[in-house]
Design brief:
The complex is a heterodimer of chains A (about 425) and B (about 260). Chain A is an alpha/beta fold and about 425 residues long. Chain A has eleven helices and 21 strands. Chain A has two domains: about 270 residues, no CATH class; about 60 residues, no CATH class. Chain A is globular, with a radius of gyration of 21 Å. Chain A starts with a helix and ends with a helix. Chain B has nine helices and twelve strands. Chain B is of the alpha/beta class and about 260 residues long. In chain B, the strands form three sheets. Chain B has a six-stranded mixed sheet with strand order 6-9-10-3-11-12, with helices on both faces. In chain B, strands 2-1-4-5 form a four-stranded antiparallel sheet, covered by helices on one side. In chain B, helix 5 runs parallel beside helix 6. The chains are: A alpha/beta (about 425), B alpha/beta (about 260).
Chain lengths: ~425, ~260
C-alpha cells in the first residue's frame, strides 16, 4: 500500500459524521505528519536492523470493514481458548474495536472505561507533532484509529485484580489494525493491566498499536504485555508513558509469536522519585524477527530505572535490542541499570543488541551490559554430574534463562502461560518438559 | 587388577592448561570404606574430585581409573553418575530459573531409566524426599526455589547431601563439604553422610579439617601433596595433621 492510497482511505474514513472536532483535528495532524515522514526505512538509525518492507508492501487495509457476526463468533471462540483468567476483569478488542463481549461493568471502584472522543489534557500532551515525527507508525495509528479507549482510575484507589485487555485480529483479508489505548492513573492509585495479543489466524494481518500512559503522583502501574500470535502476524507498537512524582511503572514484555515484531517503549521519568522497570523476554525461532527499542528519559532528580531483556534466538531467528537511557541535566542522583542477555541456539540465528547511554549530569549511577552467548558450561556440568542427560540439561538451562525474567511477572496466569509456551518451543522439549 | 575394589586410580597424571596438577596418583577404594583425603592448598584434591566426575577441562595425560571394574575415563559425566558416582561440589553451582524439584526429578528419572524403571510421579517424589529433607533440615518451600540461588554456604552444602541421599550413589566423592559450616550445620551434614554408609557403598571425603572426621570416622586418611598420595594412615593421622600441620609431611616427602 502506498501513501497515496493511504490518503484516499484516510479521507474516506473521516467522511463519517459522528467524529468529534477534537478527534478530527488530531487525526488530520497525524495524517499530515505521516504524509511527510512516510514509513520508517532502514536509513533511519533506529530502523537499521528492521525492514518494514513486508508490511509496506503487504496490502494491509488500514480501515477495514467492521467484522460481521460470524467473524465475531469465531473470534469469541478463540478468545475462550486463550483466556488467561476467566474471572478477571476483561476488555476484548476485536480488530482494534472494543467489543460488546466484555465482562467489564461501566464503573468499577473508581475505574472507568470509555471511548475517547474529546481532548484529554494529560493524555494529549503525550501526543502531537513531536511524537508523530519520532514515531511515524504512531502517527499512522492515530490517523486511522477509530476506537481510542480511555482507561481512567480515580485518586487513591488500589485495584489488585488485574484488568485484562485482550486484542485479537480476526479478518479474512489482510488488515491493518490500529488499537489505541490511553491510561490515566490517579494520584496514589494502583492498577495492574495485562495486555494480551492473540490470534491464531494464519491469514497475515498487521497490528499497529499505541498505548499512552499518564501516571500521577505516587501511583503504581504494573503492565504486562504478552504477545502470542500465530507466526504469520505482523506487530508494531509504541508505548509512551509519563511519570509524575514518586510514580512507579513496572513493565513486562513477552513476545513469543509474530513474524515481524517491533516494540517501541518511551518512558519519561518526568518528576523527582519516579521509577520504572522493564523486564522483557522474547523468543525468535524459525524466521521470526523480534525488535525491542526502548528509550528511558531521566528528566528529574532521584529517578530510577531498571531494565533487563532476554532473548532466545533459534534457527534463522533474528533479535534486535536497543536500549537508550538519557540522563538529563536536572536528574542528579539518577540510577539507571540496564542489561540485555541473549542466547543463540543456532549459528544461523542473529542478534543485534546495543545499549546507549547519554548522561548530562554528574552524580548518577548507571550501568549497562550486553551479552550474547551460549549455555554456561559450569551449570551444564553440574546438571550432568547428577545423571541428567545433556539434552535435558540444555533444555532446562535454556528454559531457565527465560524463566529467570518470567519469575518477575506478578500475575501468575501470565507467568505460567508464558513459561509453558516458551518451554514448548525449545529444542528437545519432549525430553524435559515433563519436569516442569 | 584387584576385583574387590570399587575404585582403582593408578598412576594418574592430569594437566590443566599445560600445568601438571596430578602427578602419579594412586588410590584404591573398596566397598564399605571411607577414605579421607587431606593436604595443603594446591595439592590437587579438588582436581581429583573433578576428574572422577568427568569435568572435561582437565586432561588426563596418563594413568587409569577403574570404577566397578570398568574404565571410568571413557564415560561421560552423566554416565558416571548413572553408574553410581556422585560428586558433592566444593562450590555448588547456582542455576537461576531451574527449580530444585526439576533437578531432583531429572536426576532420579535418569537413574531409573538405566534400571528400566518408570519415571517418578509427583506423589512418589514427595514421599521419597520428605524424610530426607527433614534429616537435612531443609524446608519444603525450597523445592520451588532455583538450584542454589541465594542459598547460604551452609544451605548449599546441605543441598548437596540431600541430592546424594536421593541418588544413593555407590561412591560419593565429597569435596570440602565441611568448609564454611558452623557446628550445627556440620552435624547435619555428618548425619547425612553417615546415613548412607553401608557395606556396599564407599565415600571419599576431601577435607582440610579434622573436625568433620570426628563425626564421620574414616577408615583411611591420605595426604595429597604435589599431585600424589605421599602418606596414608588411619584416623590418627588426621589428628597428627591437625596438631602439626603439613610441613613435616612435606619435609619427609622431599627427603625421600
Amino acid at each position: 500500500m502506498s501513501t497515496i492510497n493511504l490518503q484516499e482511505v484516510f479521507d474516506a474514513s473521516l467522511d463519517q459524521s459522528d467524529i468529534s472536532a477534537a478527534s478530527r483535528s488530531l487525526r488530520n495532524e497525524a495524517m499530515v505528519s505521516f504524509h511527510e515522514t512516510g514509513f520508517p526505512s532502514r536509513k533511519h538509525e533506529s530502523w537499521r536492523y528492521t525492514d518494514l518492507k513486508p508490511i509496506v508492501s503487504g496490502g494491509f487495509d488500514p480501515s477495514p470493514q467492521p467484522i460481521n457476526s460470524q467473524q465475531e463468533k469465531k473470534a469469541t471462540q478463540e478468545i475462550e481458548k486463550s483466556i488467561l483468567d476467566s474471572k478477571a476483569l476483561r476488555l476484548v478488542f476485536i480488530n482494534g474495536k472494543l467489543s460488546t463481549n466484555n465482562t467489564f461493568p461501566n464503573e468499577f471502584n473508581g475505574l472507568s472505561i470509555s471511548k475517547k472522543t474529546e481532548s484529554y489534557k494529560s493524555i494529549d500532551v503525550l501526543q502531537g507533532k513531536e511524537l508523530f515525527k519520532d514515531y511515524p507508525l504512531a502517527a499512522l495509528n492515530t490517523a486511522f484509529s477509530q476506537h481510542e479507549t480511555l482507561i481512567m482510575l480515580d485518586e487513591g484507589i488500589q485495584i489488585t485484580k488485574p484488568l485484562h485487555l485482550i486484542h485479537i485480529n480476526s479478518g479474512t483479508e489482510p488488515t491493518a489494525i490500529q488499537p489505541k489505548i490511553a491510561i490515566d492513573i490517579g494520584t496514589e492509585s494502583e492498577l495492574t493491566i495485562v495486555q494480551h495479543y492473540i490470534g491464531s489466524n494464519p491469514e497475515p494481518s498487521w497490528t499497529n498499536s499505541v498505548t499512552l500512559i499518564n501516571q500521577n503522583k505516587g501511583s503504581l502501574l504494573k503492565l504486562y504485555r504478552f504477545q502470542e500470535y500465530h507466526h504469520e502476524q505482523f506487530h508494531t507498537e509504541l508505548l509512551k508513558s509519563r511519570l509524575s512524582n514518586n510514580a512507579e511503572l513496572k513493565l513486562g514484555y513477552v513476545d513469543l509469536g509474530g513474524k515481524l515484531v517491533r516494540n517501541d517503549v518511551h518512558i519519561d521519568l518526568a518528576e523527582p522519585g519516579a521509577a520504572c522497570s522493564i523486564d522483557g523476554v522474547f523468543l525468535a525461532m524459525n524466521g521470526q524477527h523480534i525488535d525491542n527499542h526502548t528509550l528511558i528519559e531521566h528528566s528529574a532528580p532521584s529517578t530510577t530505572s531498571q531494565e533487563s531483556f532476554r532473548g532466545i534466538i533459534g534457527e534463522h531467528g533474528r533479535g534486535v535490542f536497543k536500549g537508550k537511557v538519557v540522563v538529563h541535566r536536572d536528574a542528579q542522583g539518577a540510577d539507571a541499570q540496564q542489561s540485555s542477555d541473549n542466547l543463540l541456539l543456532s549459528e544461523h540465528g542473529e542478534i543485534d543488541a546495543k545499549p546507549e547511554l547519554e548522561i548530562y549530569t554528574d552524580d548518577v549511577k548507571c550501568s549497562h551490559g550486553t551479552t550474547v552467548g551460549e549455555l554456561d558450561l559450569e551449570q551444564l556440568f553440574y546438571l550432568c554430574s547428577r545423571g541428567v542427560n545433556k539434552t535435558t540439561a540444555k533444555g532446562l538451562l535454556t528454559f531457565a534463562f527465560a524463566n529467570t525474567i518470567l519469575q518477575r511477572i506478578e500475575v501468575p496466569e501470565v507467568r505460567k502461560r508464558a513459561a509453558s509456551s516458551i518451554a514448548g518451543e525449545l529444542p528437545d522439549y519432549q525430553n524435559w518438559g515433563g519436569l516442569l | 587388577m584387584n576385583n574387590t575394589n570399587l575404585l582403582q586410580v593408578s598412576d594418574l597424571h592430569v594437566e590443566v592448561e599445560d600445568r601438571t596438577i596430578l602427578n602419579g596418583l594412586n588410590l584404591d577404594v573398596a566397598p564399605g570404606e571411607l577414605h579421607a583425603i587431606m593436604g595443603p592448598n594446591g595439592s590437587g584434591k579438588s582436581t581429583l574430585a573433578q576428574v572422577l566426575a568427568g569435568r572435561d577441562k582437565f586432561e588426563v595425560t596418563s594413568g587409569s581409573i577403574q570404577f566397578k571394574g570398568s574404565d571410568l575415563l571413557s564415560l561421560e559425566p552423566e554416565e558416571r553418575a548413572r553408574e553410581g558416582l556422585f560428586l558433592g561440589f566444593q562450590y555448588p553451582v547456582e542455576i537461576p530459573g531451574v527449580n530444585n524439584a526439576y533437578l531432583l526429578k531429572a536426576a532420579l528419572n535418569a537413574k531409573r531409566a538405566v534400571n528400566g524403571e518408570q519415571e517418578v510421579d509427583a506423589f512418589e517424589f514427595m514421599k521419597l524426599i520428605k524424610d530426607k529433607m527433614e534429616l537435612m533440615q531443609i524446608s519444603t518451600d525450597f523445592l520451588n526455589r532455583s538450584v542454589n540461588e541465594g542459598f547460604s554456604g551452609g544451605e548449599k552444602k546441605r543441598n548437596e547431601i540431600l541430592q546424594m541421599l536421593m541418588l544413593e550413589p555407590q561412591l560419593a566423592v565429597l569435596d570440602e563439604t565441611d568448609s564454611g559450616l558452623d557446628v550445627d550445620a556440620l552435624k547435619v551434614v555428618a548425619t547425612g553422610i553417615n546415613t548412607l554408609r553401608s557395606p556396599e557403598r564407599a565415600t571419599i571425603l576431601i577435607t582440610h579439617y579434622q573436625r568433620l572426621l570426628e563425626l564421620v570416622v574414616p577408615d583411611y586418611v591420605h595426604v595429597l601433596y604435589d599431585g600424589r598420595v605421599v602418606k596414608s594412615g588411619n584416623k590418627e593421622l588426621a589428628n597428627t595433621l591437625d596438631e602439626r600441620g603439613y610441613d613435616w609431611v612435606k619435609i619427609e616427602t622431599e627427603n625421600k
